[in-house]
Design brief:
11 helices; mainly alpha; 54% helix; Helix Hairpins; globular; 3-stranded antiparallel β-sheet; binds manganese (II) ion; 248 residues; minor pseudopilin epsh fold
């Protein structure tokens, strides 16, 4: 058993215990539901840059709508589900996604779509920045050469994988505790976290991520996106993955 599998198993146990706790809770729970939209336990992460900071590669209006409406809607839906279902509030987002199968049927799709959306977008804002681009360095660069055939081949394969996503979805790079990398496209708001894998980074290929500026030209968006990828942030995530501290 890998260390990561063992961690996930502990997560499953915690989640299972939380489900039992909630199931045993008195009915007063349902009566406590407030009419106002809940503001927690999940929240939009702060971005370290302004909406216009990634111009001209990602326009300010797209960034504004993407963050303040799309991502905010996933957070609101997740908080709304948590309002009546304490199991969602008690577990970490990473544990919830790793153990979707532990959730009751009526919550599983809500958490899959909105918890996945919250995790994916939180990662997305983190790995971009102004004055970014260039190439990775250090052991991340070495891993890209070792596992993905070198930086240029990796970028071409990543763009091709993003283009092949039919409809809405993401293209990710996963990393395991040994630092091994793989390109993994996923539909909708699905995340490799749902398969007990770690996400190093990824690009959003939903039309809402690029349509205002690029219209149907997803290939141009995928190519331009490298200009806003912050390899220092991704290098930090790579180190965290190997140290066992990377969550979402
Ligand atoms: Mn999006």
């Amino acid at each position: 058993m890998t260390e990561f599998t063992a961690l996930s198993r502990r997560g499953a146990l915690r989640l299972g215990a939380a489900v039992l706790t909630i199931a045993a809770a008195p009915k007063v729970w349902a009566q406590a539901a407030a009419p106002a939209a809940p503001t927690g336990p999940f929240s939009l992460p702060k971005r370290s840059y302004e909406a216009n900071a990634l111009e001209p590669h990602i326009d300010a209006q797209t960034m504004d709508i993407h963050y303040n409406r799309h991502h905010a809607a996933y957070v609101a839906a997740l908080n709304n589900a948590a309002k009546d279902n304490g199991v969602i509030a008690k577990a970490s987002l990473a544990d919830l996604l790793a153990d979707l199968g532990q959730l009751p049927d009526n919550l599983r799709t809500v958490v899959r779509n909105n918890g996945g959306g919250h995790a994916n977008h939180s990662m997305f804002w983190e790995v971009m920045g102004p004055g970014a681009g260039g190439a990775p360095g250090g052991d991340l660069a070495a891993a890209i050469t070792r596992d993905l055939g070198g930086f240029d081949k990796f970028k071409a394969d990543f763009e091709a994988a993003g283009l092949r996503v039919f409809g809405s979805g993401w293209v990710f790079v996963t990393v395991d505790r040994g630092g091994r990398l793989a390109v993994l496209p996923r539909p909708n708001q699905d995340s490799p976290l749902m398969e007990k894998q770690l996400v190093l980074f990824g690009n959003d290929v939903w039309e809402h991520a690029y349509y205002l500026k690029y219209q149907n030209r997803r290939a141009d968006y995928l190519k331009s996106w490298w200009n806003v990828v912050d390899w220092s942030k991704i290098g930090a995530r790579y180190a965290a993955a190997k140290a066992g501290t990377l969550a979402i």
